[in-house]
Design goal:
The protein is about 0% helix and about 45% strand. By secondary structure, the chain is an all-beta fold. Strand 2 and strand 3 form a beta hairpin. Bound molecules: zinc ion (ZN). The site of zinc ion has 8 residues, from loops.
Length: about 100
């Protein structure tokens, strides 16, 4: 497993697999949170996981922790390395 290091700006940490930036976003005047991350596999690609129910497409449930976040369901990196796993208690665990 890989520790999900929480960073202020994911673009400063491109080379760190599993780094996570918790982004505050506003959608139609509602505050929401999304998770930008660098793929834990080491391929270097960046992904984004929204938590807002109003957003189109897939979304994830968040346990509310900024130090040790848990997102459900699992994360599948489509179109690239196909990494599949979970962010659980602040750690990436591949399936
Ligand atoms: Zn990858």
């Amino acid at each position: 497993m890989i520790r999900a290091r929480i960073v202020d700006d994911i673009d400063d940490h491109n080379a760190t697999p599993g780094a996570v930036e918790i982004r505050e976003v506003e959608i139609d005047g509602e505050r929401s949170v999304g998770f930008a991350f660098i793929c834990p596999c080491g391929c270097g690609r960046e992904g984004y996981l929204p938590t807002d129910p109003a957003e189109q497409g897939p979304r994830w449930d968040w346990n509310g922790s900024r130090e040790r976040p848990t997102l459900t369901p699992s994360v599948l990196f489509r179109g690239g390395c196909q990494w599949h796993g979970f962010l659980t208690d602040g750690e990436w665990r591949s399936c």
